[in-house]
């Protein structure tokens, strides 16, 4: 062999020295205490046993450096020693405690508190582009109007920027309620979900305590509920509300999948959104928001049907083209959100970026559907509308409860009352929550209750109670 040819071979193999090859493949092999994982040439992490690892390393050229080794036996020995060195490095330096998809993480090995986690697949983040987005702008504006649109823009802006920066900031729950067939599902699927990375799951069974297996929650950034989930019974709704509060604003989660050990993952990224019609039966998918700790974790928007739509919703035949148009505009919308849009000062919030919000009409409906709201309704029906009291009732809590129970039996509504008063102190506790809604506790200075602190309850027309139809409720 001529010196020139030998020099060419030596130069071509220089980049494939043992050390270079080791450094390259040591970072691409991990060990999960049972199997090896190899990042292949297409960018995918593959699970392999010992023999499969050998074959893959051969195919991917990890042993090319042995071309300079003379002798068949010497070359085989060099390969075995090199592979053993790689396996040892994987066990010593790249032992992983979890393998799977992790919401808010891109593909690769991530370290948290000294432990290593292998994320096998990442999310798809829309890249901002300087372009117009008239379809998205018109569609959102006609559904939510000038006031509400800022809450949606701000919620999406905060979520995208958190995801882009790799931060795992908690976020409020987004609730969108409106009449059927106005585009709620389209916005969910083709705008909100896409901005949140494209991966989604339906967390209803976990929120309702119907299953303990929650690996899909750990894998997806967008958690989506609709009113088909259904929650029957106040106790179940309260349990649902507790889980809702815990999961909605907390980025730390324990994950449990079928056939696998439970694991405590690093903080994850997620946003929960709920889509429902506005009738009371559908609104039961929303937990009671009357408690302060939950009310400040929700943005409740009402989507209105536009009289003169800026953007006309497509017919079934037009939908593919409409979806494509919106998809083309999304980079422009994201660019505007992140580089131009500023949340108005009066709705900014230090923790979430935007304040909580409840549309006044929906807030009234949700309050009326709560236990205290239904108690107020029964007091109105059984005490005032029945003529048992006129404009005002006053007395102790025990006296009011006794009169209400007697009236409920007489009007054959005692079962309805028992659904509300399910525990011994329920009446007084719920009555306390009604303060400011025609219910006050005062010290009386004259009359039969002189010197006592008693409850004073006003008839609906005296305190301006909203007229709400609760026939679709429980």
What distance separates the N and C termini? Answer: 91 Å
Q: State the domain count.
A: 3
Q: What is the overall number of helices?
A: 18
Q: Output the CATH class name of the largest domain.
A: Alpha Beta
Which class do the helix and strand fractions yield?
alpha/beta
Overall geometric form: elongated
Q: CATH homologous superfamily name of the largest domain?
A: P-loop containing nucleotide triphosphate hydrolases
Order of strands in the sheet with most strands = 8-9-12-7-13-14
Features:
474 residues; alpha/beta; Rossmann fold; six-stranded parallel β-sheet; three-stranded antiparallel β-sheet; 18 helices; 44% helix; disordered N terminus; disordered C terminus
Please provide a written account of the structure:
The relative contact order is 0.10. The chain has three domains: 3-95, no CATH class; 134-365, P-loop containing nucleotide triphosphate hydrolases (Rossmann fold); 370-463, no CATH class. The strands form five sheets. The protein has a six-stranded parallel sheet. The chain has 474 residues and is α/β, with parallel strands linked by helices. Strand 5 (108-112) and strand 6 (115-119) form a beta hairpin. Helix 15 runs antiparallel to helix 16. The chain has helices at residues 3-14, 18-26, 50-59, 72-93, 134-164, 184-195, 204-207, 215-219, 234-248, 280-283, 292-295, 319-339, 360-369, 371-385, 397-410, 414-420, 426-433, 460-463, and strands at 29-31, 36-39, 45-48, 98-100, 108-112, 115-119, 173-178, 200-201, 222-226, 254-255, 263-264, 271-276, 298-303, 357-358, 392-395, 439-443, 453-458. Helix content is 44%, strand content 15%.
